[in-house]
Amino acid sequence: MSTKRQPKRVPAAPEPPRAGSPSTATPASVRQVNRAILLNLIRMHQPVSRIQLSALTGIYRSNVSFIVEELLAEGLVREERGRPAGRGRVPMFLSLNPDGCRVVGVSIRAAETVAALAGLTGRVLDSAAFRTPKTPKAWLEHFRRAIEKLCGGARRWAAGIQHICISVPGMVNHASGEILWMNALPGYAGFGLREKVQEMTGVPATVANDCHLATTCERWMGDISAELRNLVFLEVGDVGVGAGMIVNGELCTGHNSTFAAEFGHMVVDPSGPPCNCGRRGCWELFVCDRATWKHFDASTEFTESRFEELIRQARGGDRRAVRAFQTTARRLGLGISNITLVLNPETVILAGRLTEVWGIIAPPIEEALAALPGRPRLRPARMPAEELFLHGAIRQALSGLFARPRLG
Ligand SMILES: [Zn+2]
Predict the structure, then answer these.
(1) What pLDDT was estimated at residue 55?
(2) Residue 277 in domain
(3) Out of 190, 205, 295, 299, which could bridge 197 as a Cys pair, Cβ 3.0 to 4.6 Å?
């Protein structure tokens, strides 16, 4: 059997079926579904044998082998002999081939942009960072140089990159890849980022909201046997709350693929302070890091270093610092209880620096959820938000290979 890599592109993640155009399963589409299931199982259980894959799925061994041969021929997986255990045949084990694919995940933040080259397992192989300029035109020029660095020079321009996904801290049209609104970088509004990146690199690209990518990344990193089908992700930042939600197994991006899960802008006090969304008294104004700082010391301005010091003091048991986080946590709990009553998620994941004092903030939030009928599991994110955005972009760039095709 050949393990030579065939040139290919990572297919785009499947679009939802159009209304009025039903389709039915054919033997080929059934095989595609099983192929995605097996590839995901190899990712989660590697190293894993063909027999184990058959037992895990109930798919006949001959059919498992047929698909595995296809994956081996495409260079997506590799098969190696395991260690001998006593007498008898030494089994062969399958694992993802890290070199089976090259993708680039990009995270644009207000201050810095990071671009990371990754293989099929999602592990970062190399990265390049630059200061995020104020205009998207200048950003494209910096990005071109970052791609050159990742590919080993201008002569190997974008060589071998199969998909690029860009995480942005703002509102995006997920279908067109156009940036609609970015509070931190207003000059990017209306910029067709996906189109420009594709034109410049010749590589298929995706652009998505940072918290939506973080939401799918949390799900991706989870145990496939307990796949989360209803999940709310909340990222508490300096000035706002970003969010994403998975409903019945699907990331929700709204009817026109632009926004959904903007929980931070639920109005909780109509006569409250003005919000940058144009309304007053939005929830995020009462739970963001600036608000926590205000609970602690309303007489001085919030700065990142002061907030870090506040976290340190709270962890050290300073009563005023602890009370500031408890006040924020009670308001967070109120909002999360409202979200829970609307969506009934299995899990609510919190990200942001305030999770560094999880022992202080979790009890008041749990208390607010205690009386709800479908009490969700509350847990902190698996990694800091900035890392989730980047890894979410990498995962999204790979998603076409692991996604099951949609049927009507
Ligand atoms: Zn608002």
Answers:
(1) 93
(2) yes
(3) 205
State in Å: Cα 106 to ligand 1 middle. 27
Instruction: Check whether 162 has a pLDDT greater than 70.
Output: yes
Strand ranges in 210-280 using DSSP code E only, listed in sequence order: 231-236, 241-247, 250-251
pLDDT digits (tens, 9 = 90+) for 262-294: 999 999 999 999 998 899 999 999 999 999 999
Q: In terms of domains, do 183 and 275 share one?
A: no
CATH number at residue 159: 3.30.420.40
CA 240–ligand 1 middle distance (angstroms): 9
Cα of 361 from ligand 1 centre, angstroms: 23
Residues with CB under 5 A from ligand 1 (ion): 265, 275, 277, 279, 282
> Ligand 1: distance of its center to the CA of 329 in Å?
19
- 8 A C-beta contact, residue 192 and residue 199: no
Q: How far is the CA of 237 from the centre of ligand 1 (A)?
A: 14
C-alpha of residue 283 to centroid of ligand 1, in Å: 8
Judgement on whether residues 140 and 172 belong to the same structural domain of the protein: yes
- Output the six-digit token pair for 369: 């959820």
Pair 330, 396 in one domain? no
Going from the Cα of 167 to the center of ligand 1, the distance in angstroms, rounded, reads: 21
Question: How far apart, in whole angstroms, are the C-alpha atoms of residue 201 and residue 206?
Answer: 13
* Run of H or E residues at 143: helix 136-151
194, 116: one domain: yes
Q: How far is the CA of 262 from the centre of ligand 1 (A)?
A: 9
* pLDDT exceeds cutoff 60 at 40: yes
In a domain, 8, yes or no: no
C-alpha distances in Å from residue 328, one per residue of 290, 298, 321, 351: 10, 14, 11, 14
| C-alpha 213 to ligand 1 mean position (Å) | 21
Q: Evaluate whether residue 229 is within a structural domain.
A: yes
pTM over 0.90: no
pLDDT tens digits for range 381-399: 999 999 999 999 999 999 8
Distance, CA 242 to ligand 1 centroid (Å)? 11
CA–CA gap between residue 246 and residue 59 (Å, rounded) = 28
CA of 38 to the centre of ligand 1 (A): 43
83 CA → ligand 1 middle, Å: 58
Residues spanned by the domain of 361:
222-381
- Please give the tally of structural domains in the chain: 2
In 3D space, the residue among 217, 267, 240 whose CA is nearest the CA of residue 231 turns out to be 217
| One domain for residues 228 and 197 | no
Claim to verify: residue 263 and residue 341 sit in the same structural domain: yes
Same domain for 209 and 168:
yes
**245/248 Cα distance (integer angstroms):** 10
| 183 located within any domain | yes
